[in-house]
Amino acid sequence: MSATQTQPNIKSRDQRFSNLQRTLVLIKPDAVQRGLVGQIVARFEARGLALAGLKLLQMDEQRAAKLYEPHVGRPFYDGLVKYMTSGPIVALCLEGVDTITVVRKMMGATKPAEAEPGTIRGDFAQRVDFNIVHGSDAPESAARELPIFFGNDELVSHDPSYTFFL
Ligand code: IDP
Ligand code: MG
Fold first, then answer.
1. Domain of 19?
2. Distance CA 16, CA 11 (A)
3. Which CATH number belongs to the domain containing residue 137 in this structure?
4. Does 158 participate in catalysis according to the annotation?
5. Which listed residue, of 5, 105, 135, 142, carries a Cα 20 to 30 Å from 66's Cα?
6. 3 state SS of 91
7. Is the pLDDT of residue 6 over 80?
8. Which of 68, 128, 136, 144 to mutate to test the pocket of ligand 1 (most atoms within 8 A of CB)?
9. Could you give the number of structural domains in the chain?
10. Strand partners, 117
11. How many angstroms is it from 3 CA to the middle of ligand 1?
């Protein structure tokens, strides 16, 4: 006799979750060159964050300047723009509960030497100027940054079946 499987949680997504958020993640040029895209995306999927957008692109200086506008004037700004425009990146829009905080924790500290093992930077990076990933740091940042990479028609909200178990 086979076991009977039942759906444990049949409410709609809005009823199941509070504080659903969207955030921007960029897999930076060093990570793309090192062939880490799959491993990084796999971590977010395994955590249960839903993909709402995904694309490969190479930023021009104009787009990088928009993204890093809050950093204008910092000593590392010119190098940062050069790095981020040096090759293709992968942009993700991730959706889930408290996703902005969750992603920042999964990324680890900006300086990889301070990033805990188990975080993306703590596992894959050594240098602050090649630190693998970007993630929006607050809801206001996500709201500012997402339109730099995705039009509304490029973002798809859906309710992956695995979220019934989250
Ligand atoms: P975050 O990416 O962890 O949010 P931010 O302080 O917002 O860190 O800095 C944006 C990016 O600028 C960093 O991810 C890193 O690529 C670069 N950066 C920050 N500080 C330095 C530095 O001291 N030297 C070189 N690059 C830096
Ligand atoms: Mg930042």
1. 3-165
2. 6
3. 3.30.70.141
4. no
5. 105
6. strand
7. no
8. 128
9. 1
10. 119
11. 52
